[in-house]
Structures are given as structure tokens and as C-alpha cells.
Amino acid sequence: MALQFISAKEAAALVKNDDNVGFSGFTHAGCPKVVPVEIAKRAEAEHAKGNPFKIGVFTGASTGDSIDGALTRAKAIKFRTPYQTNKDTREALNRNEFDFFDLHLSQLAQEIRYGFFGKINVAIVEACEVTEKGEVVPTTAVGITPTICRLADIVIVELNKKVPAKLRGIHDIYELQDPPKRREIPIYEIQNRIGLDYVKVDPKKIFVVETEKDGEGGGFAPVDEVTARIGENVANFFVSEINAKRIPAHFLPIQSGVGNIANAVLAAMGSNPDIPRFEVYTEVIQDAVIDMMQKGNISFASGCSLTVSNEVLHQFYNDLDFFKNKLVLRPSEISNNPGLARRLGIIALNTAIEVDIFGNVNSTHVNGTKMMNGIGGSGDFTRNSYLSVFLTPSTAKKGAISCIVPKVTHEDHNEHSVKIVVSEYGVADLRGKGPRKRAEEIIEKCAHPDYRPLLHEYLNRGVNGHLPQDIYACFAFHHTLRETGSMLNTDFSKYQIG
Ligand code: 0RQ
């Protein structure tokens, strides 16, 4: 059957007010870039006429500005899940302009299938190849594409000519069966391929929009002193774990989160001669991974997206023959699968907003109220890893905020899942320690020296019980920050003990 080619504007006209729309991509990688912008224009035009026009937005993770930014600015979003990193979207959801549902990324595809969010009406996916038989080859990410393409009535394929069609073969497309018939996922080593190299779509549902848009990936900030020290601390810790035989000599697959800190930690691991060549089983493959594969530090990478800067992306395309048998892109329900994290023995490295002295981690809400990005995949990996590591600078906002606090203002990862905390000052090892010992360890190894006396004072206020949490003073740091602009001014004597 011949494919139907339409313009981006015509594609946008297929989306109706109140539709649930699923988008391909995971971070800015692999996202459609022209149809969502046309949908945003359409929403603005409808609003100008006094008509309602809002859609539900479902994605693999965060997106490029063409989805979250454009649709937010057009006030075209009624509901958004599961993760975002866009400034405009963040501000809008914190003004409660729309409902944002923060979800573990591995769970979204199955929860869509379970019907938890209603029907997905339209899927809009970026591809580097689409055939008349309905073989859709994604670009630099997979996310929830297989599920939304199967369930949607209409599948709009943005065929991006900037992405080489010879990318075909890099994806491993496999959709989970749903309970009670789910079988084990047959990945026993991270190199295993278990699915197709394309997404199968009923060709009758496909509309193709041809585009030529570059990726939307920015570069990484240069490594600063604090970030470099966190990286060195992690690398040295891994070496000591290998020497103590708690990590096998051949090492274990690494998951690393997004952002500058994660990128710098990988780079530090690459420059430590005592860390053996290792593998990556992760969600986002960042610049440092590509560089380390070229240098031979990383032997294989399995991920959901190639979240790299445009410069690195073009290098990758030019060197595709080298990468093809060393890198695989999977749907998020496979890349982030909790069962696989446990089976493969993944070491999970994620960044925290704040960590409390008992080992609970806040990854999402500044001061417990303002959403930053979302939990992303950090929970998928942390809870199920061989070893979970949280990274954080000891302070934020030039020292006015301690990232080590008496109690987190929002809890994403609890003390039962968090094993290691690393700041620029050192490594706190929480394994096998009760609450008081964990607190001593985190204060001494990770807190900024300026905050250590205050944190000790909190711990030693004389509260009884297994966990000496003081319900009157546990938010004294945050309270003082709000009143004086710095947590350093905290005066615990103002608070009743108990
Ligand atoms: O703000 O840029 O305005 O100065 O938070 O902090 O230190 O630059 O770190 O960019 O790696 O982000 C947790 C948000 C860290 C991220 C988080 C302020 C700080 C700065 C960013 P400015 P940094 P990063 C894989 C795994 C959850 C999802 C996840 C994240 C800004 O890593 O979203 O792990 N994680 N996914 O100044 C107030 C504090 C603060 C603070 C930092 N205590 N109070 N502000 N900041 N600590 C990815 C996926 O799932 C796809």
C-alpha cells in the first residue's frame, strides 16, 4: 500500500481538541520537531477564535523545545506525563496550568496499555525510514514508540532526512506482554538483541511528513572543580570496591543519569587506569559514553536514547560502522526495566537535589513544592540496582543551601534503596548501617564543613527512638532559608525538642 505523504500543517489538523497524543523520543533525542510546532500554532489560532484546544502529552521522557516548549507556550497542554526538563513547561506546571503526572519511566508504556490514562488517539514519531509495509525505523531514541504506534488510530511519521537511514539496525524493538501472561525478558547479557530493528505499524494508519531538522541537543558545561571532585570520588570508590571484591574484577554495567555531573563522573571513570573496560546499561547515552567507546574504555552501550550534543551526533553518524555492533537503543520499558536492573547487576548513578542525613533522597521538588524535572528513570534503577549511588554537590546557590539536610522536603528514593552518597568532599557508605551511623557517615563524608556543626547539633538534640527525627526542627534549615536567604543562619535553639 502506497504511503500517504502530507504537510506538517495537514498533520496537525488530524489532531483534535482533547486528544491524547503520544510522541516518540526520550530527552530531546528522537522527538518529532515540526508537527508539534504546527499543533501549537493551531492551538493558538483556535484560542484566538475563542475555541478550546488542549491535548494530553505522553512521551518517553523529557523532549525538545518543539514539543514541551512550543505546546506550553501555546497553552495547548491539558495533561503531561512522565518527565520534562523544559523551562517554560516547568514554570507552567508549577503555576498549575495543567496536570503533571510524575512517573517512573519504565512504567508508562504498560500503564498506557492498561488503560490508566484513557485512549491514545494519535502517535507522532520521528523516523529515519518508513516502508510501505509499515516498518517504521526510529531515529536516536525509542521511548514509548512501539506502544503508542500500536494503540493510536493515527500514526504521523516525521521522516527526518537529516538522520541517515543506515541507522537501521541499531534499535532492538520489543514490547512487553501484559500480565498475567508476561514472560521473562530474554536479555541475559546487555548485548542480547530480542526484537525487531523497526516498529511494526499498520500502514493504513500512517501519514508521513518529510522534514530536515537537526537535533535539539546543546553541549555540556565544562567540568568545574566540584563536579571533577565528585567524579574522582566515585572513580576511587569503585576501585576500592573492586579491590575489596565487592564489585567483580570485570566490573558491572553502569547506569548514569542525565546532566553535567553524570557526564563528568563517566569521564573521571574513563581517566582512572584502575577501572577496567566496562559496559553501560542505561537510559540516556551522553557525550562521555560515545567518547569513551571511541577510546576503548566502554565496550558496549545499551540505552533508550542517544542524548548527545549535535557535534557528537554528527561524529556518531560518520562513524556508524564502528558503533553498530557496540550500541543498541531499546524501548524505555526494556532499557529501564527493574527486573533487568536486578538481573544484570547494574550500578546506578543518579543526581539528587537534596539528601537527608538518614539517606532519603529528593530528586524532584525544590523546597518540597517546586517541581524541577521529575523522577525520570532514577527510581527504576536505584531500587533494583546492585549498588545505588547518589551524587550531589554539598551545597547549592553559592553555599546558601546545604544539599545535606536534616529531612528531605520531598522523598523520591528512601533510605532502603540508597546505598552510597557522594559529594565533592567524599563518599558515604550507608550499607549495613542503622540511622544514627548513617547520619554520622553522611555528615562527616558528604556535608560541607560549614554545615557539619549544625547537622551534628540536629542529630544530637536528644530525640529518642531508633530514628532521631525531630518533628519540630526537621525543616529548620528550609524554614531559615525562607526567612533569611541562607540555611547557615539556622538556630535550633528556637525549636522545641521532640
Ligand atoms: O539550578 O542551574 O539554576 O543553578 O538545581 O542542579 O547541580 O546543576 O545538577 O543539572 O544534574 O540536576 C536532580 C535536578 C540535578 C537532575 C537534578 C539547583 C541547582 C541548579 C540543577 P541552577 P545541578 P543537574 C536519568 C535519571 C531526577 C531524574 C533523574 C534530575 C539545578 O539530575 O532531574 O535522576 N534528576 N533521572 O542550583 C535548590 C537544592 C538544590 C537546588 C540543586 N537543594 N535546592 N536548588 N539545585 N540542589 C534521566 C532520565 O530520567 C531521562
UniProtKB/TrEMBL annotation:
Catalytic machinery residues: 283 (5-glutamyl coenzyme a thioester intermediate)
GO molecular function (one): acetate CoA-transferase activity
Organism for this UniProt entry: Proteiniphilum saccharofermentans
Gene Ontology process terms (BP): acetate metabolic process; acetyl-CoA metabolic process
Name of the coding gene: scpC
Residue ranges constituting the Acetyl-CoA hydrolase/transferase N-terminal domain according to the UniProt record: 6-209
Keywords: Transferase
Keyword 4Fe-4S recorded: no
Domain of life, source organism: Bacteria
Domain Acetyl-CoA hydrolase/transferase C-terminal, chain residue ranges per copy: 315-458
Top-level EC class: transferase
Binding sites annotated in the UniProt record for CoA: 353, 373, 377, 397
Record protein name field: Propionyl-CoA:succinate CoA transferase
Enzyme Commission numbers on file: 2.8.3.-
InterPro entries xrefs: AcetylCoA_hyd_C, AcetylCoA_hyd_C_sf, ActCoA_hydro, ActCoA_hydro_N, NagB/RpiA_transferase-like, Succinate_CoA_transferase
